[in-house]
Design a protein that fits this description.
Layout lengths: L5 H14 L3 E5 L3 H14 L3 E5 L1 H7 L7 H15 L7 E5 L11 H13 L8 E4 L6 H16 L4 E6 L3 E4 L2 E2 L10 H11 L6 E5 L4 E2 L12 H14 L7 E3 L7 H9 L2 E6 L1 H17 L1 H4 L9 H4 L1 H22 L11
Parallel strand pairs: 1-2, 1-11, 2-3, 3-4, 4-5, 5-8, 6-9, 10-11
Antiparallel strand pairs: 6-7
Helix pairs in contact: 2-4, 2-13, 3-4, 6-7, 7-8, 10-13
This protein binds zinc ion (ZN).
């Protein structure tokens, strides 16, 4: 199917919350990793989300260009074309964008969608994250309000973050004393500021989650915080105000904690570290197994088939697709596609 349109994406998110499953939102940086996600989702008969980070966009644009928005557009255009060959829906999203990068990342991408819509073409991306979690909450929400008002005109969905996800992503490290647990008061303020605008948003609330990989047990998650936030918002603004939550930094989490988070309204779970490892692991295996082929050892000529990048990148695509399938299964999403083939 082509990339999900606004109505389909909304239906995806609502169905996930009602049925207590979540979509993996997988970071991609290249055609190969994007294709891996499409393959994994299709084999799981699950819809999903492909996302591009600022660093991923810069990488995709080429090391001589390093234009975050350009690389994100290139990946999105590929996905728009390639997704049409798969029997599932995929949504396109951009990951963490701090306030100082809005002008060079999210806003050029929004402008690109606005241009496309004016010309009668579909949105480039379905949703964008603005990460104002490093700012005081009122400044974070001042910027979120402005963005959401603009997004509303183009059927774009905004993801915001209240509280800080620990660890490191794309070279941005959270402060050691960062606020790792969102409070119900914070999320009530989010609802108070954003719910009247008439556009949809996703909320990355933090409950001890940490970016990057940690050994099982070293991440102290408190999913019950999500329940407290949902209960507070439903109690104050009514059932319809319940959030669609996003889970960042889930690597190393116990499955029962992930499932508890799904029970409390997490509909999108970001995955990067685990798929990065799956991708690289398969390449390492190839290099070790075909050492004499990928290298020209002792005056020999190596094995062209072994060192052709397609050989190991195809293995990596397959390995990453398998990891995507595992993520879908863990998020209770297998077989849930909206696509009627
Ligand atoms: Zn994140």
């Amino acid at each position: 199917m082509p990339v999900a349109d606004y109505a389909t994406y909304c239906e995806m998110l609502d169905r996930a919350r009602t049925n207590r499953f979540a979509y993996p939102a997988i970071n991609v940086t290249s055609l190969t990793t994007a294709n891996a996600v499409l393959k994994g989702l299709a084999e799981s008969r699950s819809d999903g989300i492909i996302q591009v980070s600022t660093g991923g966009g810069a990488f995709a644009s080429g090391s001589a260009v390093k234009d975050m928005a350009l690389g994100a557009i290139s990946i999105a255009e590929h996905v728009h074309r390639a997704a049409a060959r798969y029997p599932i829906y995929v949504a396109l999203h951009t990951d963490h964008c701090q306030a100082d990068k809005l002008d060079t990342y999210v806003l050029p991408l929004v402008a690109e969608t606005e241009r496309r819509r004016a010309a009668g073409f579909p949105n480039l991306f379905n949703s964008h994250m603005f990460d104002g979690s490093a700012l005081p909450l009122d400044e974070n929400l001042d910027l979120a309000v402005k963005l959401l008002e603009r997004f509303a005109k183009s059927e774009l969905i905004l993801e915001i973050e209240a509280g800080v996800v620990g660890g490191e992503e794309d070279g941005v490290r959270a402060e050691a004393n960062a606020k790792l647990y969102t409070t119900p008061e914070d999320t009530l303020e989010v609802a108070r500021r954003l719910n009247g605008i008439g556009a949809r948003y996703l909320l990355a609330a933090t409950f001890g989650n940490v970016h990057g990989v940690y050994k099982p047990g070293s991440v102290k998650l408190k999913p019950s915080i999500l329940k407290e936030c949902q209960d507070a918002v439903a109690g104050t603004f009514g059932e319809a105000a319940r959030f669609h939550l996003v889970f960042h930094g889930g690597s190393g989490s116990e499955l029962h904690e992930i499932h508890e988070a799904l029970d409390y309204g997490v509909v999108k779970m970001n995955i990067d570290t685990d798929t990065q490892y799956a991708f690289t692991r398969s390449i390492v295996r190839h290099m070790f197994m075909h050492y004499d082929g990928v290298l020209k050892v002792d005056g020999e000529v190596g094995d062209k088939k072994a060192y052709d990048p397609r050989t190991y990148l195809a293995l990596a695509e397959g390995a990453m697709a398998e990891r995507v399938k595992r993520a879908v299964a863990e998020l209770r999403g297998t077989g849930t596609t909206l696509f009627k083939g």
